[in-house]
């Protein structure tokens, strides 16, 4: 017996609409960086984990992660699905392992990795922190804000 509120055909249609690129959080990050004059390329083909944004000259990449899909430790990311729980738990665990391996490979190759979490985008100072981190000024920003 299933606890899904949709028929299999409806569930299939819902899942087809889940996008892997050009998501609302990704578009918001792109708008912020464009407004700050930070250039980037999309896709990251050829790099481990296929980052969402690549800044070759800065040797920086940006991953924009949805909290649920990547198992973030916030309220949304910690939410456990009731239907097909074993499948989703295993899938999210695989996503987290893949994310960690991609980050390690990129850092070993000399890239700075910036991970943007969907929940973190709600902070008032998010645009400033994102731009500073991408430009490699995150240490200066966090040091000045703690003083």
Question: Could you characterize what this model shows?
Answer:
It is a single chain. This protein has 147 residues and is α+β, with helices and mostly antiparallel strands. 46% of the residues lie in helices and 12% in strands. It contains six helices and four strands. The protein has a four-stranded mixed sheet with strand order 1-2-3-4, sandwiched between helices.
Element pattern in H and E: HHEEEHHEHH
**How much of the residues is beta strand, in percent?**
5-15%
Count of DSSP strands: 4
Q: Please state the CA-atom Rg, rounded to the nearest Å.
A: 17 Å
Structural class: alpha+beta
Q: What is the CA–CA distance across the termini?
A: 57 Å
Main sheet overview? 4 strands, mixed
Order of strands, widest sheet: 1-2-3-4
Helical amount: 40-55%
In round numbers, the mean pLDDT is: 84
Counting DSSP H or I runs of 4 or more residues, the number of helices is 6
The stretches of 5 or more residues where confidence is low (pLDDT under 50) are 140-147
Shape: globular
């Amino acid at each position: 017996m299933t606890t899904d509120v949709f028929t299999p055909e409806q569930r299939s249609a819902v899942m087809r609409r889940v996008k892997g690129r050009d998501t609302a959080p990704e578009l918001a990050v792109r708008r912020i960086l464009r407004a700050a004059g930070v250039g980037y390329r999309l896709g990251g083909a050829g790099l481990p984990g296929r980052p969402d944004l690549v800044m070759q000259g800065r040797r920086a990449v940006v991953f924009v992660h949805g909290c649920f899909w990547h198992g973030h430790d916030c309220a949304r990311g910690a939410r456990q699905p009731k239907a097909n729980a074993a499948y989703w738990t295993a899938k999210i665990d695989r996503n987290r392992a893949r994310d960690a391996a991609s980050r390690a490979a990129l850092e070993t190759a000399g890239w700075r990795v910036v991970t943007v979490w969907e929940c973190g985008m709600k902070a008032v100072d998010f645009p400033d922190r994102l731009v500073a981190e991408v430009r490699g000024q995150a240490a200066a920003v966090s040091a000045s804000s703690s003083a």
